[in-house]
Amino acid sequence: MTDSKTALLDKISSVADLRALPEAQLAQLADELRAETIRAVAQTGGHLGAGLGVVELTVALHYVFNTPQDRLIWDVGHQAYPHKILTGRRDRIRTLRQEGGLSGFTKRSESEFDPFGAGHSSTSISAGHGMAVARDLQGRDNQVIAVIGDGALSAGMAYEALNNAGASDHDLIVILNDNDMSIAQPVGALSSYLSELISSRPYHSIRGLVKEVANRFPSEARQAARRAHHLARDLVGGHSLFSELGFFHIGPIDGHDLGHLLPVLKNLRDGEVRGPVLVHVVTEKGRGHPFAGPSSEKYHAVPKFDVITGEQVKPAGNLPSFTSVFAGALIEEARKDSQIVAITAAMPSGTGLNKLATEFPDRVFDVGIAEQHAVTFAAGLATEGMKPFCAIYSTFLQRGYDQLVHDVAIQNLPVRFAIDRAGLVGADGATHAGVFDLAWLSCLPNMMIMCPADEAELVRMVATAAAYEGGPCALRYPRGTGSGVALPEQPAPLTIGKGRIIREGSDLAVLSLGTMLEQTSQLADRLAGEGHQITLADARFAKPLDTGLLDRLVADHSALLVVEEASSGGFSALVLDYLAESGALDKGLKIRTAHLPERYLDHAARERQLEIAGLDVGGLYEKARLLLAGKTARHHARS
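User: That's the sequence. What structure does it adopt?
Assistant: Structure tokens below.
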């Protein structure tokens, strides 16, 4: 049965159906596509605002260009939900971010219409330039279009790509989707620059403008034609940053007006302009959202909601998130110490620093999507005696690793890295899972790494980081809520590199890192119910290792299980290295490690991801059972 709200969209099962429509019906299709996007995200949750802003642009691009032969790259998959609906995935759009369903981002293995995976921002121009060069080397004639927006132009990588692509002769179309509202309000000079461009002369017809200007020159003129071309280019984009980088700059144009979009895109498709071209399209993020309020940031990413009332489906319980606990603890430390400052890379609310900024606006710095700059900026602050907390998601900090090594660690500067979203992240999948930071942090000399087991420990570790001046340190904590434990009112700094014993036994020692203490506590209870005496230890610090605690566990037990929610090469590797060098492995110690498997885990509920990884209670039980087999005989033999 056809839905009256999507009667036209219901007839579109492929891009061929879309291209068969008369242009007069495209506005109606866009309205229906917007309604379908809202209804789908209402059921699944996800990134809503960015996709709503590019509905007309999505329709126009697929209508004009011959996708997937023409490569269409969406920078950050936040924008791509309408694209997925139009490219044969509407029947699965309500499986977004669910186990076995569609990814919340573009993904090459999901569809031929996704030529490049985009979970992190600012990659589209680099990838598009690579595709354009490959096309020309292989003698093909398809178009390559990169759509960049949602604040992605605040990243240095985008400018590196613009500089390289602009200096080439390869045909590449870059669509700058300027929605004047990235995840947080755009920062820095770029926002003012784009706003100034909006007031410049709009551009509607490349062919018409070039022809009009060319008519003012003598007819003989190859040279005149060349001059006309350059003059037209100046009239279109002025002496803009993009034109100075070598792009033919068109715009700005209204990204919601198909009458403006279609002629320009057709001219580009037909080769009216060759070489690198940038089209500045102005859109409204969240356009058509029925419940948009004064805080537009709130619908960048939304939970499930009632499409009639707008009421959001909130998780049961009222437990605080680790992010909010971190923010509260840092505010308390900042009240006591005026040298404490905080840096974020375009995620003030995602990291909780917006709360700190409310009280201390001059001590919080949002540098945009510029993680490399964020890290070295923090290093500069540290050289002058400030106490910088650099709050960045684990997977985003990967982008600043060279700066972390070269500018912070080698100089042993006391920069405090607050690493949010450490561990598995559920529906955001592999691109956002913070599973590698322990491996690439623990190999750095002088790096101190703390991993709280619960939100009370997080508060203590914020206090520890604030007091620590011995060099760089990292505090890694997961997405999601805590367990509801009471928070210390006046937290004292922890002793660096010292863990704690949670419960004592004699049969098996379990060494847990971070929030895996919840699973290992349940494991210990299950084993105790079977008559086993379990020692459970919370490492607290991944580095420096508590070697005294390790020596004690090895001396008192014949078997050891080490548990972490991270990739191989991290905490478990440090433990094994120490035990090998200390000779503990020469004495018959049975040891197993439990960490994430050597593969990328797709999006699913975090509990399901833990099960797949063998880090749920059931998976840990199987490892523990093997270690406990024959324990009595071996323990007596070692004695």
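The two ends are 76 Å apart (CA to CA).
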